[in-house]
Amino acid sequence: MMGILFLLMIVAFFLFKVPHLAMVSSKTSNLIPGESLKICDIKYSQDYKNGEGKWELKAKEGRILEKSQMVALKGVSLKLDSFEEPSYTIRGNEGDYFRESGDIILRGDVTGRSTSGYQIETSVLIYRQKNESVETDKPIRVIGPFFYVEGVGLYIDLRKKTFTVKGNVFTIVMSGDFFR
Prior knowledge:
Elements: H1 2-27, E1 35-48, E2 53-65, E3 70-82, E4 88-98, E5 104-114, E6 119-128, E7 133-143, E8 147-157, E9 162-173
Antiparallel strand pairs: 1-2, 2-3, 3-4, 4-5, 5-6, 6-7, 7-8, 8-9
């Protein structure tokens, strides 16, 4: 009789405790509304330029938002590698990767560096995979081997290897073989 009573007490204890545990676990979830998954230490790469290069996206943390087909990122690094041309690495505090369009937006102390010695500094930078371009409408600073440029807005065509500062341009040309 005592054994049966003891078993009933254990079953009653678990029956009353399970709903309480479920409520606690739902309150401690780190997911925000609309978020389907949170992942850490992300590394994602994809070929571009018909197999002549690839881009690689790294982030410390990512949150996948299903309805918008977007991944919100923290601690972001984007590397654009090409087998024949200079490579570029762009870093930002935060970013968004839009899976449908392939656009990657980096925000917060964004810096970009090329293996050929160019550097970009801004607060927001957008990489558009479809036309292989980088752009912003925010204030920028571009530092090259023989020049320094400040302005507002920037468009870089990676295919044509050109960049355009959109407005309020201030340029310093440093010594070198620029005028020869």
